[in-house]
Amino acid sequence: MSTDAVKEARRQVEVCNACRYCEGYCSVFPAISRQRSFSDGDVVQLANLCHNCRGCYYACQYTEPHEFAINVPKVLAEVQQASWQEHAVPQRFAGAFHRSGVAIAFAVVIGFALIFWALKALGENAGGEGFYALLSHTAMVAIFAPAFLLPLLSIGLSLRTYWRKVGGGRIQISDITAAVGSAARMKNLSGGHEEGCNFEDEDRFSNARRWRHQAVMYGFLLCFASTCSATVLHFVFHMPAPYGPLSLPKILGVPGGILLSIGTLAMAELKLRADRTLSDNRVWGGEMGFIVLLFFVSTSGLVLYLFADAGVLDVLLATHLGAVLALFLLMPYTKMAHGFYRLTALVKDAHDQRS
Amino acid sequence: MSETHDIVVVGGGNAGLCAAITAAETGARVLLLEGAPKPYRGGNSRHTRNFRCMHEGPLSVLEDSYGEDEYFNDLLKVTAGKTDENLARLVIRSSQECLRWMERQGVHFQPSLSGTLSLGRTNAFFLGGGKALVNAYYRTAQRLGVEVKYDAHVKHLALDGDQVSKLEYISGSERRQISPKAIIVAAGGFQSNFDWLVRAWGPAAENFLIRGTPYNTGVVLKDLLDQGAVPVGDPTQCHAVAIDGRAPKFDGGIVTRLDCVIYSVVVNKHAKRFYDEGEDVWPKRYAIWGRLVAAQPDQVAYSIIDARSLDLFMPSVFPPIKADTIEELAGKLNLPEQELRATIDAFNASCGSVEKFHPTELDGLTTSGLTPAKTNWARPIVTPPFYGYSLRPGVTFTYLGLKVDENAQTTTQAGLIKNLWAAGETMAGSILGQGYLAGFGMTIGTVFGRIAGREAAAYVN
Ligand SMILES: Cc1cc2nc3c(=O)[nH]c(=O)nc-3n(C[C@H](O)[C@H](O)[C@H](O)COP(=O)(O)OP(=O)(O)OC[C@H]3O[C@@H](n4cnc5c(N)ncnc54)[C@H](O)[C@@H]3O)c2cc1C
Ligand code: SF4
Ligand code: SF4
């Protein structure tokens, strides 16, 4: 772990603890006020609570050129990033995809190639309808079940070491519901006054990032629910794809895909406007690459839905599934990880508030 | 340029911004000249956290009620009667409507911060602190068409009989002259002007630290007083508190305050005690400690506690100096070892039972046979590690200002100055002749800023 970043964060957090003016913005400052000294784990936990809304930066009377040089959003973003890399399993992939959008693109291309090869090699006698005419359901499950479950396992292992690092104890159901409730409303991007954060236009408060993030999150969850519903229909009710426009997978998936496409585009646009010196600039490319990947996954899915009858189905399918494969496999090593860490940090925070 | 603005506001802190917004709301064309560059805009107002607000019932984040008389009595207590009752009551009464007005301009409030519960009923806290308030006001002012110039130092207002005819300022390397119809001065006090402080206070002032902005140098105040504007407030006094001696010369702000004194033994550079550290609870005593430390050799003192007291007060920006023995601590603090040992030993020997020690109440634990006595929280300093903080006087503001009437209008001996108004610290001496009431500075600035804006606009429109 980059101990310099942790040290610097600790210095800044101690200034904040003597000041406390930002207590109303988010969960970070009340968590600071509960303590007097901060272990490495405490600092990492604070970092993972920070949503980089920047409210505290513009409100701070000690930002540069002041000698106290406070820039909480930046230093916490750096610690947060370092903590994800430190806890990543396996360590081999820890940094590359976080940092580099090009690496992510490269992963998509490999995903495409793999799927395309699978189509050619296994597709001959797939025998199903629709997509399954190109790649059998069994083959898809054989590829995607491990591609989804192994990264999840990796994240689970990471979260376990995270929990130990930050000194997490026994939790209650109420801690989890509190955390999910906070994430569901993106409470920490409300600015404490529901006017939002200071992300894209200096000290002007706006809910733009909050709503756009929600579009991405709920869009993604709808798409995920769509896939789950299809799996249930297939295995439990023996109703294989293709599904009609009024089926559950479509009712969830189409609006989800649209929401995710629009949300990611809007997020990318916002990110282009935001001041890069208030975040961890070293991973800007990787974060942008991840947004583009999400956009690519949802949009290629929609295209596939609209043009399922076109002649290039195999290329379209390989493109979409290749991107999905990359998204899944890179889950622990891209910005995707933030959702898991954030939720865990919120659970820990709910726990700490209680005790 | 002189033709394009009706009103020029000098100083972009709370008072100047309230004046500029109020004037611009009427359609007047306003130019705001702020001496600081943009990152430091907002003067001392950027360091504040709350304002004191009268309320007859629950109001926004304020619970219960805080009536005019109670408020006025609180003011009387701290000023020992040195206040203009008429103006003071005007400020107090107007504060109530200010809160909603401030919210409309984009200021957000929050319940009192942790560690400041005693102010929860009387003071409304700014969400994000004073800089967030200042940011909101700049946004609103600019939306209303106020032109803002940073790094614009006003040097001279030419007083011609009963009005100001010209204003001179330096912007970058350029000297400019304009003749607006009306001018509002909201440029704070002179506490950042060390030459002036030394003249007023004596050479000891060289060692003072300034808690707020380095840009309040009193240039406009002196310029106007030299031309016959009527002054108000004691020219030799400033409000000073004891802060961490390691704080920067300027702009250290709230984080440099130290709340450890009442649990400690305070010595001067000769390791001698000089005052009762436990006289009263800290919020009632922190202001006198500025003076006490200012009267010690080299204007420095050292507050010494043991491990048992470390967690009893709000943390401050710098960690304390830590040592396992009193002698080692003396070495680290550059104090004479034997004298410190003797002072601590004498103090420890004079302490009685500590059973009733109570950190948040006057616990009556007093020393016996010690001069000066410590009359509360007298608990021996025996449990290592020992901690020490250096203390220096930190100046908040100066009292000398421009005398104004209830319309914020300034005056010479000959009568009112027709087109010159003043608001904020620049005229606060009219109301606060002595002492300080937490949150009252922002209240004076908001109320008088709005009055000045209103009056100047009425004059030009
Ligand atoms: C650390 C600290 C904490 C405080 N906390 C509180 C609190 O919580 N509540 C409270 O009520 N009060 C508080 N105060 C007092 C409060 O800051 C002042 O009463 C209030 O800010 C005064 O507002 P103002 O607009 O008159 O002056 P300022 O906010 O100081 O503004 C004066 C402005 O004038 C500008 N200026 C000066 N000279 C010139 C020139 N020649 N030309 C152009 N511009 C010039 C300066 O750059 C500055 O921006 C605190 C003070 C300090 C130092
Ligand atoms: S970010 Fe600045 S204003 Fe906010 S709590 Fe920290 S030191 Fe205070
Ligand atoms: S950037 Fe936002 S979320 Fe992060 S600490 Fe500051 S106010 Fe809180």
Explain this structure:
The complex is a heterodimer of chains A (355) and B (461). In chain A, helix 11 packs antiparallel against helix 12 (284-306). Chain A has two domains: 3-86, no CATH class; 93-354, Fumarate Reductase Cytochrome B subunit (Up-down Bundle). By secondary structure, chain A is mainly α. The longest helix of chain A has 29 residues, at 137-165. Chain A starts with a helix and ends with a helix. Chain A has helices at 3-19, 28-33, 40-49, 55-58, 72-87, 96-99, 101-122, 137-165, 173-185, 208-235, 248-273, 284-306, 313-329, 337-354. Chain A is built from 14 helices and no strands. With 461 residues, chain B is an alpha/beta fold. In chain B, 28% of the residues lie in helices and 21% in strands. Chain B is built from eleven helices and 20 strands. Chain B has helices at 14-25, 68-79, 85-104, 130-143, 194-201, 219-226, 288-294, 326-333, 337-350, 425-428, 440-460; strands at residues 7-10, 30-33, 50-52, 109-110, 123-126, 147-149, 152-160, 163-171, 174-178, 182-185, 209-210, 231-232, 238-244, 265-267, 301-306, 321-323, 386-398, 401-402, 409-412, 415-422. Chain B has a six-stranded mixed sheet, covered by helices on one side. In chain B, strands 11, 13, 14, 15, 16 and 17 form a six-stranded mixed sheet that branches. In chain B, helix 1 links the parallel strand 1 (7-10) and strand 2. In chain B, helix 2 packs across helix 3. Chains A and B meet through helix 1 and helix 4 of A and helix 4 of B. The structure holds flavin-adenine dinucleotide and iron/sulfur cluster (2 copies). Residues 15-16, 19-22, 56, 59-62, 70, 72 of chain A line the site of one iron/sulfur cluster.
